[in-house]
Amino acid sequence: MSNLRLLDEQSISSSVSTFSVPNVFTSDFDIYQITATDLSTTGTAETEIWLRFVSADGSVITASNYEYGARYFFAWAGASDLNGQNQAGVRRCFAEVTDQSPEVASSTLWIFNPYSSTEYTSLLFENSNYYAGTYASQMRGFAHYKKLERVTGFHAYDNNGSRPLASGTFRTYGLRVDS
Amino acid sequence: MPYGYLGVHPNQQKANSGVFSISDYINTQDDKELGGGVDLIAQSDHSSNVATIDFTSIQESKYDVHCLYISNLAFPSSTNRIGIQLYESGTLETASVYDYAYYIGESAGWEGEQRDEGENFMQFQYQSTRNGILGGYLYFYNLGNSAKYSVMTYQQYMMTGDEAYDDYRMGGAVLPQASTVDGIRVMNSVANSFTAFNIKLFGYKK
Fold it and tell me: Which sign does the torsion angle of CA A84, A88, A93, A95 carry?
């Protein structure tokens, strides 16, 4: 029996610019894994998919308390770094870039201590993407939500609010700890 | 939580007391809450030296996230490039259609990247002069979805026999074809035989 427990599964069923998964982080687990598969948009515009957290009251946290660093690799060009301090979200966390199906993006995230109000919430992420009919990219990075606040869920959104997400499935797993 | 265990009581954070009845078991299984969230699909352990290691029963319709854990994959010198090829509806895709890119950090201090478009496999390691051992994990997404491309992310370590080029690599790859992928092959570019390996394939429950 594995130690990862499937806690929640949510899929995008119609075009939206944002998608929230609330009430998945609880006192039951300290460490979570999230898989996001099959992320694509309506239309052909290249779109980044960012992350925010959902607070204990159910609201999406938009304050500029996110910090992140990452490197992304392209099959067609040299790699680049990405970083930000005091940002309003974690840039390109779920997808470096995605666009229309069948060219999809998929990702895996680890979330640490989200339910703790005495420790920052941290995450590691990696994603793989294909877009514009020719571009393959991969990305790996980290982020911190640097406020001592309990968060209970997460929120995916496109980078400019006008390129609706057409598909995607988010699954949340909790890492069980036995001594 | 209404369910529990007979005998040893597990130490987990969520209170868990009581005994499973048959209906509890069935209902919990139907709710996908029985057992872990990751299932072992297949395992391949070294019994003789082989140039390719195939996983051809990957239950692609049951899982859309697969994870391949590689430990102790040993290769001789001049093996060159090590990577992955995928089976599409039972046929191994060997054409120059894969794209990949990854970062390399070497213990000797050098760092860089390797990448290519239109390659005939998903390269994740390249060592041209030394024998070595590598390990790591690779995530595969959307393999069983015939309407979507298949993508992969990974990270791994590699130790050369004389420790001259030990490295760490991270990156990923894409098979940019909408197809049903129903098999995974671990291979290398010169068909050298792997001399040791232990590889497990897991599926993430959905």
Answer: negative
Class of residue A26 by CB neighbours under 10 A (exposed 0-12, middle 13-18, buried 19+) = middle
Whether residue A94 lies within 8 A of chain B, CB to CB, comes out as no
Residue B108: predicted pLDDT = 87
Q: Are B61 and B75 in contact (CB under 8 A)?
A: no
The rounded distance, in Å, linking the Cα atoms of A87 and A117 is 20
CA distance A17 to chain B (A): 21
Q: What is the pTM of this model?
A: 0.89
SS3 annotation, A63-106: CCCEEEEEEEEECCCCCEEEEEEEECCEEEEEEEEECCCCCCEE
- From chain B, the residues in CB contact with A1 under 8 A are 35-36
Q: Is B174 on the interface with A (CB under 8 A)?
A: yes
Residue pLDDT, tens place only, A108-144: 999 999 999 999 999 999 999 999 999 999 999 999 9
What letter does residue B25 receive in the DSSP assignment?
A: H
Search chain B and give the residue with CA nearest A77.
Answer: B115
Helix, strand or coil for residue B30?
helix
Which pLDDT value is given to residue A98?
Answer: 93
Quote the tokens at residue A144.
């911190």
Whether B149 sits inside 8 A of A137 (CB atoms) is: no
> Within an 8 Å CB–CB cutoff, is residue B42 touching chain A?
no
The answer to whether residue A10 neighbours chain B at the CB level (below 8 Å) is: no
Tokens representing residue B121 in the block: 């496999």
Cα–Cα distance measured from residue A28 to residue B120, given in angstroms and rounded to the nearest whole number: 45
- For B147, phi then psi, to 5°, come to -100, 0
Q: What value of ipTM does the predicted structure carry?
A: 0.89
Structure tokens at A48: 């980044």
The predicted structure's pLDDT at residue B22? 76
Report yes or no: B183 and B87 within 8 Å, Cβ to Cβ. Answer: yes
Place of tokens 């959905």: B206
Please list, residue by residue across B47-57, b when 16 or more beta carbons sit within 10 angstroms of its beta carbon and e when fewer do.
eeebeebbbee
Residue of B64, B115, B152 lying closest to A73 (CB–CB): B115
